[in-house]
Write a structure and sequence with these properties.
Blueprint (H helix, E strand, L loop, with lengths): L2 E3 H8 L6 H9 L6 E2 L5 E4 H15 L19
């Protein structure tokens, strides 16, 4: 179990592709598993972070439900 700071998570886990600000936002919204120490320092567990990331990826590829639309459908016009 490897623990890392928000800065380390942004740099190492996300390879610089996710900002620290986004990680803090997800923590603030209660979406990202973390531990806040009495000193105020936030630690993230690499295994929990990986699990969270996989859940986010699976949510992003869910098939969309088809909507019934009134436009874009060809229909015969009465003469």
């Amino acid at each position: 179990m490897k623990r890392m700071t928000v800065k380390q998570a942004a740099e190492i886990f996300f390879c610089g592709n996710v900002s620290e600000a986004l990680i803090y936002k997800e923590i603030r919204l209660g979406r990202l598993p973390h531990v806040r120490l009495s000193s105020g320092k936030i630690l993230l567990d690499a295994d929990s972070l990986e699990q969270w990331w996989q859940e986010q990826l699976s949510k992003s590829v869910q098939p969309r439900q088809m909507e019934t639309r009134e436009y874009g459908i060809l229909r015969k016009i009465a003469e």
